Amino acid sequence: MTNIPETGRTPRVQIRLVIIQILVFSLLATLGGRLWYLQIRNGHEYADEARSNHVQRVVQPAVRGDVLDARGVPLADNETRLVVSASRTELMRIKDRGKAVLTRLAGVLDMKPQDVMDKIRLCDSQTPKPCWNGSPYQPIPVTMEATTQQALQIRERPEDFPGITAEPTAVRRYPAVGGGRTAQVLGYLSPVTDDEIQKAKDTDSPHLRSDQVGRSGIERTYDKELRGKAQVTSYEVDNLGRVMGETKSDPGVAGSTLVTSIDARVQAVAEYELAEAMKVVRNETDNITGRKYEADSGAVVVMETKTGRVVAMASQPDYDPNVWVGGISGKDYAKFTSKDSNYPLLNRAIQGQAPAGSIFKVVSASAAVRAGYAFDDKYNCSASYNMGGRSFANFESKGHGPITLGEALKFSCNTVFYALGHKEWQRDGGLEPKNPHDWFYKTAREFGLGSETHIDLPNEVTGRIPDRHWKQSFWEANKDSWCKQGKKGGTYVEQIAYESCLEGNQLKAYDSINFAIGQGDVLVTPIQMATAYAAISNGGTLYNPTVGKAVVSPQGRIEEIKPQAHGKLPVDAKTISDLDKGLRMVVEPGGTAAWRFIGWPLDKIPLRAKTGTAQVYGKQTTSWLATYSDDFTIVMTISQGGTGSGASGPAVRNIYNAMYGLTMDGKETGKALLPRPQTQLPTVHPDGTIDSPEIKPYVPPSPEELAPPALAGPPPLRHD
Fold it and tell me: Most exposed among 136, 367, 554, 646, judged by the fewest C-beta atoms under 10 Å?
């Protein structure tokens, strides 16, 4: 007999079979559940993803809108160029990561292989320019200046140039019509980054990977309007990449055109005259240092007094914005960002800060009136002002005796304002203030100083008004450093640090004395001073300076950008009128700017001015000249350029002569560029096109034309 069942299976075998059956059924159940989950519960989701895997999007970037001057002259537009681009994604799939392809491409383009490879490497904190800071999935331009022959070589040999394309493309252009670059005002473009794409993802203006965006200037401020909307077409393709049909098409919209308040003709004059003034003064010797003036930077603003619109804005050193088109070279980028170049990317009109010097005296005169001093009372203009054993000299140590505040502006008398600033400091309690009025500091802030003017350009700086609050916060931030560096009885710098450590938070008498003439820790920008002087001219309104004037859609719809104000001058109409009269005396015989405006027809075109020469520790003096007519305000500054009338005077006079069409003896030339503000917009046709007049480059006056008319009598003052 045997214990083996009829089935021939032992109990151990049966147990094993049962276990195997259980495992099989478990696996089948798991597989079935997973299939149910994928095909039924989440079936639609995966079906959509599967379909999207077979959809390819073709992006056609929108043509960027033009930037025009007030009469329709193009400041920035587009031109068609042959652009050679490289697909980094495709090149990385090649065994040598595209090195051989790029080397062949360099040979065709007459470039160095390393230069081509540098163009397509991705930017990061360790990678120097040039590099690509856009999306790595977007075709990267290698050159935007390919010849027809070069493009044909690439397109006829696709097997030698995988991942390389050569296509005609609309490319940004800055034509500098008339000779004016308008560089810092216009700005430049560069590719959108992945971070920017993510940030703009859920906004009403999302970015595509192909976008070029504004990085500075008008290109940045009005980027959304200028950029337009790219055309995106979706195609259904099979797994071999063959197009099966079009699934979706989003039509593109060209960018809008921006009409600015800039006059290209006046811009060219302003740029030339600023650069020429700096060139001339570099050949003159500074009597204080015994060296030639460095004149290392400068700026000029021409503004409509009644609207705040910017007619011209120039900054030196400047640059050609076309160098950014297609990607800037490493050499140019290093030049623009190096100390030796003095940073030409900076717009000194809104980012250059310096003590205001005597052009600040309109603020101090206003503060004195608010504090109770009569404008027409007599104040002693002595050769120097003494305070606590210290002597504060007048310019060139000249005195004029008892004079009014208007005459103090005319002669630019420092000692009058020294005394007023000191008396107000004493009235406020000196070193132990009790509810101080701080009229001088308060008035400066209400003139718009120490804060942004709200100009429609990015990265404007605020300047500085060193009042009690600033003194305290600055001391708290620097106390430890001063205490470590300071030494009683040490060098000048060590002694200053020692005193600052102990009492740097105190507003002292000499702080207020220097503040009254725009010196000490005061910092202002040219656009702030232009806004303030324009307000004196227009009766007291502080307008937001604007460059944009109107946005014109591709269909011809016009959206005008209206002037807006951000405040009023903190003085009454009589004080504004008194200031105006005092500033007119500055250009009349005996005034500090009179020698630069000999022959100007004051009876026909009233002109006012204030000269300024600001002292900066460790540097040569900074030249300031603030002027205005009934319609325009012009402010110019030249860093390390000397006196206000001496360095800036000739350039400002030449700008006025060109605008009003006058010779040095006041005769009309019949060639006035802009005798009154441009109020009308350019003609916009129903199809959205805009008339663009032709302009000629600025021809500066000859030395004979610049000679001032001969006058009888004593020579005018030539200072400040």
Answer: 136
